[in-house]
Design a protein that fits this description.
This protein is α/β, with parallel strands linked by helices. The protein contains 13 helices and 13 strands. The protein has a single domain, classed as Glycosidases (TIM Barrel), CATH 3.20.20.80. It is globular, with a radius of gyration of 19 Å. The structure holds beta-D-glucopyranose.
Length: 375
């Protein structure tokens, strides 16, 4: 089984000046976690920490600076990262789109326009040719979160509030996913999406509006995208964090007096068991936990988080569910989108002033856990 941790390009590399997020946050992500400059040391750390998988992403906007200008030196750096991982027997799990878009793509209307899908597919073609030796691709990360944040909540660029646009975007992303799958697919590769799945529960069990809203969230947020692409999934990537209580459509709350992370999300380990079982029953595909993690300033809480969630993963395996990997989020402290640098998810602490790394006790705890599981 794969045991590792993950990051995404925009959140960790630094200096992604051609991304729409760079425009949106006015370069606030700056050097992020300095991964672009420190990847060699970071891969040494992964090895030292006993992990046999690493999930990270290729930044489309770094490679395609403009519509028809490929930066081969950037491509070459990714090539070296992949080579180093393979040399150390660390499985690269590469995400091809993790929320951030090239500025020129965004200016053309981004994912709202189906005519733009082809631009992403050019990028996919290029990667497919250049990286024949990558086995695991996550074609898209959390299309549901992206369309929700950008077009329902309005907290991510382009910050609009239109359910119609959210649905169009989700639909275009599903088309892009299917076409990208067809480009990449060969007998050696395993392809999927990383889908954010939330445990939705009605705020009050006997309130029909709460019950219907919770049901709709489950259908639209959790499963609409997966249902659209279900024929094109070699396994299913689950990103699991929390449970919410639904009042009305997208109005949800966390219950009081529960264990929470630093963003106020409930820590609900049993949820990983419930959702994994449900997804396995529904789609009958192997499962990879592509993200699961906690932001906290208390590393004991992180240790407990990992321990309890992995216990439930083991319960799933005992019950016959095929789980091919567990990826803790995140390998490094990193830039948490609209929330900025406050929330610390990393197994490795990053000093954002200097880029210095410090291994947290939870990373050693995770190493021990992996060691025992692999025996
Ligand atoms: C995203 C990550 C993010 C994490 C924690 C996931 O929804 O894929 O980019 O850092 O959640 O919020």
């Amino acid at each position: 089984m794969l045991w590792g941790s993950g990051i995404s390009a925009y959140q960790a590399e630094g200096d992604n000046v051609n991304s729409d997020w760079w425009v949106y946050d006015k370069g606030k992500s700056a050097k992020a976690s300095y991964f672009w400059y420190k990847w060699k040391d970071d891969i040494e750390l992964l090895k030292q920490l006993g992990q046999n998988a690493f999930r990270f992403s290729f930044e489309w906007s770094r490679i395609y600076k403009s519509e028809n200008e490929i930066d081969y030196s950037a491509l070459d750096t990714y090539r070296k990262i992949v080579d180093k991982l393979l040399e150390y027997n660390i499985e690269p799990i590469v995400t091809l789109w993790h929320f951030s878009n090239p500025i020129w793509f965004y200016n053309k209307g981004g994912w709202l326009r189906k005519e733009n899908i082809g631009y992403f597919l050019d990028f996919v073609e290029l990667i497919s040719k250049y990286f024949q030796d990558i086995r695991y691709f996550i074609i898209l990360n959390e299309p549901n979160v992206y369309s929700f944040k950008s077009y329902v909540e309005g907290s991510w660029p382009p910050c609009e509030k239109s359910i119609k646009k959210a649905l169009i975007t989700l639909n275009n992303l599903s088309k892009a996913y299917i076409k990208a799958y067809q480009i990449l697919k060969n007998s050696k590769r395993l392809l999927s999406v990383a889908q954010n799945l939330v445990i939705f529960r009605p705020y009050k069990l006997y309130n029909p509006i709460n019950v219907i809203s919770s049901f709709l969230n489950d259908k639209l947020y959790n499963f609409l995208f997966l249902d659209k692409v279900k024929k094109y999934l070699d396994f299913i990537g689950i990103n699991y964090y929390t449970r919410v209580f639904v009042k009305f459509f997208s109005n949800f709350v966390y219950k009081k007096d529960r264990d929470k992370n630093c963003l106020g999300w409930e820590v609900y380990p049993k949820g990983i068991y419930i959702i994994t079982k449900l997804v396995y029953r529904k789609y009958k595909k192997p499962i990879m936990i592509t993200e699961n993690g906690i932001c906290t300033n208390n590393d004991f809480q992180r240790i407990n988080f990992i321990k309890e969630h992995v216990e439930y993963i083991k319960k799933c395996i005992k019950e016959g569910i095929k789980i091919i990997g567990y990826i803790y989020w995140a390998f490094l402290d990193n830039y948490e989108w609209a929330e900025g640098f406050g929330p610390r998810f990393g197994l490795i602490e990053v000093d954002y002033e200097t880029g210095n790394r410090k291994i947290r006790n939870s990373a050693y705890f995770y190493r021990e856990l992996i060691y025992n599981e692999k025996r």
